[in-house]
Amino acid sequence: MTSEQKPILYSYWRSSCSWRVRIALALKNIDYEYRTVDLLSQDAKDQLKSVNPVGRVPLLLVNNYTINESLAIIEYLDENYPGVPLLPKDPIKRAQARAIALHVTSGIQPLHNLKVLQILNKKESGLGGEFAKQFLTDGLTALENLLKESSGKYSVGDEITVADLVIPSLLYTAGRFNLDLSPYPTINRINDTLAEIPAFIAAHPDNQPDAGLNA
């Protein structure tokens, strides 16, 4: 069932979680309204809480209903819109795709988000960066091993899945921390392949209306 009203995405250009959803929207060829939430502005975050009690992006507004959490939004889009299917029909591949997505969204990304780094840096200057690098390195190493078992052209076999939606933002963040990515050839190969796909290009932070905000 496709929504009758144009969806509204509350997003921030460099938010990893928002980036995943933007890819899904592009793959599904969904026309939507983009609303910027300045994550470095307390006023903007307070205003967001009026529509999203969690106070985070992404938030998708569909026919006056709100959906938060990137994977929940992505699964909603996959179940209700035509276009590229993001969860394989094969139960093993579907489980692999979900496991990879959860490894990144639950096991890596929360450990280097802005709030965590700010708290750690208040305790000791530079501590946040070192903390993020350690967990990024550990997470990428595990992801490389996961992908060696599941990947074909993409993260799980030869079709795009939800697992691929988490790759670009992860490597983008690793680059911001100046990590050496050479130990992860499988991840790099998949990311390079994804980078040539129009939907992934459209979802890139540099191509968003608020690109460069607080850069």
Q: What does the largest sheet look like?
A: 4 strands, mixed
The residue-averaged pLDDT reads 92
Order of helices and strands: EHEHEEHHHHHHHH
The 3D shape can be described as globular
Give the proportion of residues in helices: 40-55%
Extract low-pLDDT stretches: none
The count of helical stretches stands at 10
The name of the CATH topology of the largest domain is Glutathione S-transferase Yfyf (Class Pi), Chain A, domain 2
CATH C-level name of the largest domain: Mainly Alpha
The tally of domains stands at 2
Strand content: 5-15%
**CATH architecture term of the largest domain:** Up-down Bundle
Strand order of the largest sheet: 2-1-3-4
Helix-strand category: alpha+beta
Measured distance between first and last alpha carbons: 39 Å
Cα Rg: 17 Å
Give me the count of strands: 4
